[in-house]
Protein backbone atom coordinates (compact mmCIF):
# COMPACT_ATOMS: atom_id res chain seq x y z
CA UNK A 1 0.00 0.00 0.00
CA UNK A 2 1.67 3.18 -1.21
CA UNK A 3 1.55 6.42 0.72
CA UNK A 4 0.42 8.37 -2.33
CA UNK A 5 -2.59 7.22 -4.33
CA UNK A 6 -2.44 7.01 -8.10
CA UNK A 7 -4.81 5.35 -10.56
CA UNK A 8 -3.51 1.96 -11.59
CA UNK A 9 -3.92 2.68 -15.27
CA UNK A 10 -4.92 5.35 -17.75
CA UNK A 11 -5.12 5.29 -21.52
CA UNK A 12 -5.39 7.71 -24.38
CA UNK A 13 -5.15 7.91 -28.13
CA UNK A 14 -2.20 9.42 -29.97
CA UNK A 15 -2.45 13.19 -30.07
CA UNK A 16 -4.84 13.32 -27.12
CA UNK A 17 -4.14 14.24 -23.50
CA UNK A 18 -4.23 12.30 -20.27
CA UNK A 19 -3.95 13.40 -16.66
CA UNK A 20 -2.62 11.24 -13.85
CA UNK A 21 -3.50 12.19 -10.29
CA UNK A 22 -1.44 11.67 -7.15
CA UNK A 23 -3.23 12.12 -3.84
CA UNK A 24 -1.49 12.45 -0.53
CA UNK A 25 -2.00 14.37 2.68
CA UNK A 26 -1.10 17.69 4.24
CA UNK A 27 2.07 16.00 5.55
CA UNK A 28 3.44 15.40 2.09
CA UNK A 29 1.86 16.63 -1.16
CA UNK A 30 -0.16 19.37 0.50
CA UNK A 31 2.62 20.48 2.81
CA UNK A 32 5.45 21.07 0.37
CA UNK A 33 5.93 22.17 -3.22
CA UNK A 34 8.27 19.23 -3.73
CA UNK A 35 6.34 16.83 -5.91
CA UNK A 36 8.22 15.06 -8.66
CA UNK A 37 7.16 12.69 -11.42
CA UNK A 38 9.08 9.89 -13.07
CA UNK A 39 8.63 7.95 -16.28
CA UNK A 40 9.61 4.31 -16.06
CA UNK A 41 9.92 1.96 -18.98
CA UNK A 42 10.24 -1.57 -17.53
CA UNK A 43 13.79 -2.78 -17.46
CA UNK A 44 15.21 0.72 -17.73
CA UNK A 45 16.19 3.34 -15.19
CA UNK A 46 13.37 5.69 -14.16
CA UNK A 47 13.57 9.17 -15.66
CA UNK A 48 12.74 12.44 -13.92
CA UNK A 49 10.17 14.39 -15.95
CA UNK A 50 8.75 16.92 -13.47
CA UNK A 51 10.15 18.33 -10.23
CA UNK A 52 9.04 20.96 -7.73
CA UNK A 53 5.41 20.35 -8.82
CA UNK A 54 5.66 21.89 -12.27
CA UNK A 55 9.28 22.29 -13.35
CA UNK A 56 10.65 20.34 -16.28
CA UNK A 57 14.30 19.26 -16.46
CA UNK A 58 16.07 20.28 -19.61
CA UNK A 59 15.35 17.90 -22.46
CA UNK A 60 11.86 16.94 -21.27
CA UNK A 61 9.26 17.99 -23.85
CA UNK A 62 6.74 20.65 -22.83
CA UNK A 63 4.01 18.10 -23.55
CA UNK A 64 4.61 17.06 -19.96
CA UNK A 65 3.25 19.40 -17.30
CA UNK A 66 2.57 19.23 -13.60
CA UNK A 67 0.32 20.99 -11.15
CA UNK A 68 -0.98 20.72 -7.61
CA UNK A 69 -4.12 21.61 -5.72
CA UNK A 70 -4.30 21.00 -1.98
CA UNK A 71 -3.26 17.39 -1.37
CA UNK A 72 -3.45 16.25 -4.99
CA UNK A 73 -0.79 16.64 -7.63
CA UNK A 74 -1.38 15.97 -11.31
CA UNK A 75 0.70 15.10 -14.33
CA UNK A 76 -0.72 15.96 -17.73
CA UNK A 77 0.70 14.55 -20.93
CA UNK A 78 -0.60 16.25 -24.04
CA UNK A 79 -0.12 15.26 -27.65
CA UNK A 80 0.29 11.61 -26.66
CA UNK A 81 2.91 9.65 -28.55
CA UNK A 82 3.53 5.92 -28.69
CA UNK A 83 6.79 6.29 -26.79
CA UNK A 84 4.93 7.81 -23.85
CA UNK A 85 3.58 4.36 -23.03
CA UNK A 86 5.24 3.60 -19.70
CA UNK A 87 4.70 3.56 -15.96
CA UNK A 88 4.53 6.92 -14.22
CA UNK A 89 4.98 7.43 -10.52
CA UNK A 90 4.84 10.45 -8.28
CA UNK A 91 6.97 11.30 -5.32
CA UNK A 92 6.66 13.91 -2.58
CA UNK A 93 9.00 15.21 0.06
CA UNK A 94 7.46 14.38 3.43
CA UNK A 95 9.62 16.12 6.00
CA UNK A 96 13.03 15.44 7.47
CA UNK A 97 11.99 12.27 9.31
CA UNK A 98 10.13 10.39 6.56
CA UNK A 99 12.04 12.07 3.75
CA UNK A 100 9.96 10.93 0.78
CA UNK A 101 6.84 8.99 -0.11
CA UNK A 102 5.91 7.50 -3.44
CA UNK A 103 2.80 6.70 -5.39
CA UNK A 104 2.03 3.18 -6.50
CA UNK A 105 2.53 4.01 -10.15
CA UNK A 106 0.20 4.40 -13.11
CA UNK A 107 0.48 2.41 -16.31
CA UNK A 108 -0.16 4.60 -19.34
CA UNK A 109 -1.37 2.83 -22.44
CA UNK A 110 -1.35 4.69 -25.73
CA UNK A 111 -4.15 3.16 -27.75
CA UNK B 1 25.07 14.25 -16.65
CA UNK B 2 25.56 11.66 -13.95
CA UNK B 3 25.51 7.98 -14.81
CA UNK B 4 24.89 5.30 -12.22
CA UNK B 5 25.76 1.66 -12.81
CA UNK B 6 24.65 -0.91 -10.26
CA UNK B 7 25.91 -4.37 -9.51
CA UNK B 8 24.18 -7.45 -10.84
CA UNK B 9 21.26 -9.50 -9.62
CA UNK B 10 21.56 -11.47 -6.39
CA UNK B 11 19.84 -14.56 -5.03
CA UNK B 12 19.96 -14.86 -1.26
CA UNK B 13 18.62 -17.06 1.49
CA UNK B 14 16.48 -15.68 4.31
CA UNK B 15 18.60 -14.53 7.20
CA UNK B 16 21.62 -13.70 5.05
CA UNK B 17 22.93 -10.32 3.92
CA UNK B 18 23.33 -8.60 0.57
CA UNK B 19 25.51 -5.70 -0.51
CA UNK B 20 24.59 -3.79 -3.66
CA UNK B 21 26.92 -1.29 -5.28
CA UNK B 22 26.27 1.81 -7.36
CA UNK B 23 29.16 3.37 -9.28
CA UNK B 24 28.80 7.00 -10.30
CA UNK B 25 30.45 8.79 -13.19
CA UNK B 26 30.06 12.12 -14.92
CA UNK B 27 29.62 14.28 -11.86
CA UNK B 28 31.50 15.55 -8.83
CA UNK B 29 31.01 12.63 -6.47
CA UNK B 30 31.68 14.56 -3.29
CA UNK B 31 28.94 17.07 -4.08
CA UNK B 32 26.26 14.42 -4.46
CA UNK B 33 23.65 12.90 -2.18
CA UNK B 34 22.44 9.41 -2.98
CA UNK B 35 19.34 7.51 -2.03
CA UNK B 36 18.35 3.88 -2.29
CA UNK B 37 14.79 3.11 -3.31
CA UNK B 38 13.24 -0.31 -3.70
CA UNK B 39 10.28 -1.69 -5.59
CA UNK B 40 8.90 -5.00 -4.40
CA UNK B 41 6.54 -7.04 -6.60
CA UNK B 42 3.04 -5.62 -6.44
CA UNK B 43 4.17 -2.91 -4.05
CA UNK B 44 4.96 0.72 -4.71
CA UNK B 45 8.34 2.31 -4.32
CA UNK B 46 9.90 2.70 -0.88
CA UNK B 47 12.71 4.95 0.20
CA UNK B 48 15.29 2.83 2.02
CA UNK B 49 17.83 5.46 3.01
CA UNK B 50 20.43 7.85 1.73
CA UNK B 51 23.90 9.29 2.20
CA UNK B 52 25.33 12.78 1.90
CA UNK B 53 28.79 12.16 0.49
CA UNK B 54 30.34 15.45 1.62
CA UNK B 55 29.47 14.76 5.26
CA UNK B 56 29.62 10.97 4.98
CA UNK B 57 26.29 10.96 6.80
CA UNK B 58 23.68 8.29 6.20
CA UNK B 59 20.01 8.35 7.17
CA UNK B 60 17.53 5.52 6.98
CA UNK B 61 13.80 5.03 6.78
CA UNK B 62 12.52 3.97 10.18
CA UNK B 63 11.40 0.65 8.74
CA UNK B 64 14.97 -0.27 7.78
CA UNK B 65 16.88 1.32 10.67
CA UNK B 66 19.29 -1.19 12.17
CA UNK B 67 19.09 -3.55 9.20
CA UNK B 68 20.53 -1.37 6.43
CA UNK B 69 23.91 0.30 6.14
CA UNK B 70 24.71 2.76 3.38
CA UNK B 71 28.34 3.65 2.77
CA UNK B 72 30.44 5.35 0.14
CA UNK B 73 33.95 4.97 -1.26
CA UNK B 74 35.14 8.27 -2.70
CA UNK B 75 38.20 6.65 -4.25
CA UNK B 76 35.97 4.66 -6.60
CA UNK B 77 32.91 6.95 -6.65
CA UNK B 78 30.83 4.05 -5.45
CA UNK B 79 27.93 3.91 -3.02
CA UNK B 80 26.93 0.70 -1.26
CA UNK B 81 23.73 -0.50 0.36
CA UNK B 82 24.01 -3.50 2.65
CA UNK B 83 20.91 -5.14 4.06
CA UNK B 84 21.10 -7.84 6.70
CA UNK B 85 18.68 -10.37 8.19
CA UNK B 86 17.01 -10.67 4.82
CA UNK B 87 13.38 -11.77 4.65
CA UNK B 88 11.27 -13.10 1.80
CA UNK B 89 9.53 -9.75 1.59
CA UNK B 90 12.85 -8.04 0.83
CA UNK B 91 12.64 -9.48 -2.67
CA UNK B 92 12.66 -6.35 -4.79
CA UNK B 93 14.47 -4.29 -7.36
CA UNK B 94 16.80 -1.91 -5.54
CA UNK B 95 17.64 1.39 -7.23
CA UNK B 96 20.23 3.97 -6.37
CA UNK B 97 19.55 7.55 -7.38
CA UNK B 98 21.04 10.98 -6.90
CA UNK B 99 18.96 12.94 -4.43
CA UNK B 100 18.74 16.71 -5.00
CA UNK B 101 17.05 19.53 -3.06
CA UNK B 102 13.40 18.82 -2.39
CA UNK B 103 14.01 15.09 -2.70
CA UNK B 104 14.35 15.18 -6.47
CA UNK B 105 15.85 11.99 -7.84
CA UNK B 106 17.67 13.36 -10.85
CA UNK B 107 19.49 10.26 -12.03
CA UNK B 108 18.84 6.59 -11.42
CA UNK B 109 20.75 3.38 -11.73
CA UNK B 110 19.39 0.51 -13.77
CA UNK B 111 18.23 -1.38 -10.69
CA UNK B 112 19.44 -4.55 -8.99
CA UNK B 113 17.07 -7.45 -8.48
CA UNK B 114 17.51 -9.12 -5.11
CA UNK B 115 15.61 -12.36 -4.84
CA UNK B 116 15.07 -14.20 -1.57
CA UNK B 117 14.65 -17.91 -1.91
CA UNK B 118 14.85 -20.68 0.64
What is this structure, in a nutshell?
The complex is a heterodimer of chains A (111) and B (118). Chain A has 111 residues and is mostly beta strands.
Structure characterization notes:
- The complex is a heterodimer of chains A (111) and B (118).
- By secondary structure, chain A is mainly beta.
- Chain A is 4% helix and 43% strand.
- Chain B has strands at 3-6, 10-12, 18-25, 33-39, 45-52, 57-60, 68-73, 78-83, 92-100, 104-108, 112-116.
- In chain B, a hairpin with a 4-residue loop joins β7 and β8 (78-83).
- The radius of gyration of chain B is 13 Å and the shape is globular.
- Chain B starts with a strand and ends with a strand.
- The chains are: A mainly beta (111), B mainly beta (118).
- The A-B interface holds A 1-4, 32-34, 36, 38, 44-48, 51-52, 57, 89, 91-93, 97-105 and B 4, 35, 37, 43-47, 50, 59, 61-62, 95, 97, 100, 102-111.
Descriptive keywords:
heterodimer; A: 111 residues; mainly beta; 43% strand; globular; B: 118 residues; seven-stranded mixed β-sheet; four-stranded antiparallel β-sheet; 55% strand
